[in-house]
Amino acid sequence: MTKLEPESADAMTTSTPTTQLQSVPEARDLAALEARSISAWFGDHKVLDRVSLFMPAGSVTALIGPSGCGKSTFLRILNRMHELIPHASLAGEVLLSGSDIYDTRWKLTDARRAIGMVFQKPNPFPAMSIADNVTAGLKLTGTKASREERDDLIERCLTKAGLWNEVRDRLRQPGGALSGGQQQRLCIARSLAVRPRVLLMDEPCSALDPTSTRRIEQTIAELTREVTIVIVTHNMQQAARVSQQSAFFLAEQGSPGVIVEAGTTGTIFGSPSDSRTADYVNGRFG
To answer: Rounded CA gap, 158 and 256, in Å?
Structure first.
């Protein structure tokens, strides 16, 4: 992937600028995430145009908008997954507590550890036990832990993901034997095990039944005490339920995606300033 120089045009959604590049943050306080003037391409096709968004620490930010407007691409840029795609490129900055994760001082593994991802389709390692699924990230990051520390970590992460009471007596059974909703919560537990500061979620409930969806939403609400969450969702009711901030993406007539409007979820859904936002959240298109 090619990282281009940031574009010069003003951002659509701004916050207080960071004037000095900081080192990779180590503190465990809640972390804000900020995208500055992000543009993205697949080959010569531009899919995002100068998107800027501040995602406050310890809150849930919902990315909403119709299919094809760049929400998932933007989400993947937030933890450097965009660079996995051949011929992909981008311009702009992604700041975690003021430090640009695309700066050369950031290793890719550090960025992925600090900013975790939960995908649309649950993806536990099917032949690996529930317990080993939770701790899989420790091996990838080279983290050493005693048996006692691992057992404590497994219980803590499964509890945070709302799954411990359901699986505590079958931790050695394959993760792939769980139901869809349980698998998704197992993936959340796996992401939490490496102690991310931000958790990205790409339509995490789209393939789940209403009961599982409700449990995932409860988990999201509980996690905001220790991690910042950014979620892509096509479900307007879900966005209204789980998020404190929302950003409405739109790509019109073949143009690249932009943020039409961003702000508190109450404002975006109750009294948006742009008529296109009102039309979308009220189901008049999408």
So the answer is: 40
